[in-house]
User: Which sequence fits this backbone?
């Protein structure tokens, strides 16, 4: 096993730069690695192991069994458990309820994240590592463009994402393509689990991966995943700049004032107003997610001379008069 880890380092296999700098800067002591048993998460685990001594963190492994593929799901769980034991790493496991009738990809993802966050808190890990790789970037961008996403949606998946109340998420292998990952694992004789559902092109993400993106590469005559990777990086730089400007221009929003002075919005670009008012709304009204239509209606009202308006926002209402905007209980 040590030979394999040495091969990762000697082969110049690098952790994504932002993640590497973050781990050093924040002096991260423990990382929980989300491992499905697939090539990407297995590669993530071995790559972090190769840097464990250099950076100075402990690793633990977590697997969530969705039980969607019956016996094969159980085999994947056993593989990850055996791998963790071979690597002498603590292993954490949970599974979905037996009744899968109401399960969707979204609810499954939420259950997995809840398990990972709970486990990370229990073991004192401030960081959870995920196996998202370069190909995931373009797939995510296309899906979010189709939904009409803004900057924050188009810069996902981010190498490092910090939450106020939850462990940070890191993605150490965003600098590797899926093909490169499998090539390296094959060269090092490291096995992984194959999820046959990934071939099901009735699932939109699989259709993008297997059919549409390869066709796009043929049409463009270039590596579109590399292009998407660069676009994501540039958009994140713009996002960080815009966020800083919004925080400076709208201290009432980011300070979570009970009432907002409407006059502050009329002096500013709509992009800054959008960021500030949505930050305020979502923090003051936890759990509410503003739809695209709702956002536009609210922003147009805020930036106009309208008053006396009332917007339903989940359990609360947004009220406004000539001078102020505030939330009140429904």
Assistant:
């Amino acid at each position: 096993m040590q030979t394999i880890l040495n091969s990762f380092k000697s082969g110049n296999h690098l952790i994504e730069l932002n993640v590497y700098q973050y781990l050093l800067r924040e002096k991260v002591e423990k990382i929980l690695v989300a491992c499905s048993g697939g090539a990407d998460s297995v590669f993530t685990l071995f790559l972090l192991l190769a840097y464990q001594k250099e950076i100075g963190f402990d690793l633990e492994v977590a697997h969530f069994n969705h039980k969607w593929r019956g016996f094969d799901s159980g085999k994947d769980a056993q593989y990850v458990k055996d791998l963790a034991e071979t690597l002498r790493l603590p292993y954490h496991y949970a599974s979905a309820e037996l009744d899968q009738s109401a399960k969707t990809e979204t609810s499954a993802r939420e259950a997995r994240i809840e398990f990972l966050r709970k486990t990370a808190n229990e073991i004192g890990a401030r960081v959870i590592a995920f196996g998202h790789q370069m190909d995931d970037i373009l797939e995510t961008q296309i899906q979010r463009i189709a939904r009409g996403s803004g900057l924050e949606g188009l810069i996902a998946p981010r190498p490092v994402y910090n939450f106020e109340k939850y462990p940070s998420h890191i993605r150490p292998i965003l600098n590797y393509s899926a093909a490169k990952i499998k090539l390296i694992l094959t060269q090092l004789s490291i096995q992984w689990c194959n999820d046959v559902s990934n071939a099901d092109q009735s699932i939109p993400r699989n259709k993008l991966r297997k059919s549409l993106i390869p066709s796009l590469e043929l049409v463009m005559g270039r590596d579109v995943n590399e292009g998407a990777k660069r676009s994501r990086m540039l958009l994140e730089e713009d996002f960080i700049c815009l966020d800083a400007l919004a925080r400076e221009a709208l201290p009432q929003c980011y300070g979570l004032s009970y009432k907002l002075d409407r006059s502050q919005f009329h002096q500013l670009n709509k992009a800054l107003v959008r960021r500030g008012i949505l930050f305020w709304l979502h923090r003051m009204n936890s759990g509410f997610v503003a739809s695209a239509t709702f956002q536009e209606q609210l922003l147009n009202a805020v930036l106009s001379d309208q008053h006396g308006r009332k917007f339903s926002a989940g359990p609360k209402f947004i009220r406004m008069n000539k001078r102020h905007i505030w939330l009140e209980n429904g």
